[in-house]
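Request from the bench team (R.T.):
"We need a structural guess for the complex before ordering more S-adenosylmethionine. Sequence and SMILES attached. Just send the tokens back."

Command: build protein-S-adenosylmethionine structure.
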Amino acid sequence: MKTTFPINEKASEQLGREVFTNEFVPADFFKEQELSDLFERDAPTEIDLGCGDGSFLIQLAQQYPERNFLGVERLMGRVKKVCKKAYRANLTNVKVLRLETLYTVQWLLPKNSFDRIHLICPDPWPKEKHHKNRLMQEPFFEAVHQLLKPTGEYLFRTDHEEYYDWSVEKMAEFPKFKTIEWNEEDFFYPKSDFQLQWEAEGKRLHNMRCLKVEA
Ligand SMILES: C[S@@+](CC[C@H](N)C(=O)[O-])C[C@H]1O[C@@H](n2cnc3c(N)ncnc32)[C@H](O)[C@@H]1O
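Reply to R.T.: structure attached below.
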């Protein structure tokens, strides 16, 4: 049977396209949001930046129903897919925002509000002339640091070894995060379809776990 997905009429009118109720559409894209604009419930909140098809996000949200999860993704087709997956799985703790990551963390989301922020297998921009597009550098670190609560964590995972090494160097120059060890058994951390595909091809995933250490 075909599933009918609930529509947010107001946001659909605002954007001139169909918007599902679990897509987060800011009333004003140029105003810093309140956490209560995103989720009605006051609960620990995590962000998955560049959430892709949502396979990581959905598993996390299923594992931790007591937490809220925001996925950020720029591609419309993927945003819709994640919204549909969350609805079909009866998840009320997931919202998806269709927007560019750096803009979202620098300008849109509220400061000192998030418990964990995840960046999983972002585009590695392998050519040297494109390294300026990589997220893992100071302006992004500063923005993520500001969004996190004082005890918050930033978690990064990549399949791209050279990007990982480059990121380690960039993070070492940023004193407001402390990088700590991250063992598989420390906490539940699902693998996205994308990660499973890389591993099946024999590639290793590289992890970085960073604690906010300075206000
Ligand atoms: C390689 S995929 C990984 C997806 C997912 N994190 C996973 O592990 O399965 C990268 C995703 O980030 C999205 N993306 C890339 N750059 C972005 C940006 N600047 N803002 C928002 N999304 C972005 C892409 O559209 C894509 O869905």
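Two things stood out. Strands lie at 45-49, 68-73, 94-98, 114-120, 148-158, 177-180, 206-212. Helices lie at 9-15, 35-38, 55-63, 76-88, 101-108, 138-147, 161-172, 193-200.
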